[in-house]
Amino acid sequence: MHNARSAAIVQESRRGVYGRLVPLQTRALTPDDLPQLLALNTAAVPAVNEVERETLGRLVELSHLPVGVVDDDAPAKVVGFALAMLADAPYESENYRWFSKRTKDFLYVDRIVVADGARGHGIGQLLYAAVFEAARAAGQHRVFCEVNVEPPNPGSMRFHGRLGFTEIGQQATKGGTVIVAMLEAPLPSQAQA
Predict the structure, then answer these.
(1) What is the mean pLDDT of residues 100-116?
(2) How far is residue 135's CA from residue 139's CA, in Å, rounded to a whole number?
(3) Looking at residues 2-8, what average pLDDT do you find?
(4) Is residue 193 part of a domain?
């Protein structure tokens, strides 16, 4: 199911960040992208946690899938990005550890960020298509992520629900100041895809 959905997402035309139809594409993130990633991440707080440049650089290095979205007219400008870790990464995130205690068969989306002016153009779906494909290629059978429920992020919950994520638990983080829904999207076997 995710494979067919992901393929359709990647192939469809969409309005680019500049308002006309342009194809969007994913590409691997590079160290040169770090200033843009930091600005995008900071603008997305509190939907994602705030990090300093050094920490974000380390997350990019730890990531099994450091991927960004650009459009053909501006391939150097990242308009969205995702960082995803496999099981057994040397990552101390309390949410990552919550999932790691339950299984070793997953790709964990640490963060997915889309620029304010670029939302509603299919960028989140394109990033998740890359995530699902990377999980499948790595032989994993599920994708994990979390979404804030306190402070609430209902748009993200609806978005993840449309992609097939379901809640498998909740966790209080940051000393109880944030509560997150722990989400899972199982991947179909290759025979079903």
Answers:
(1) 95
(2) 6
(3) 39
(4) no
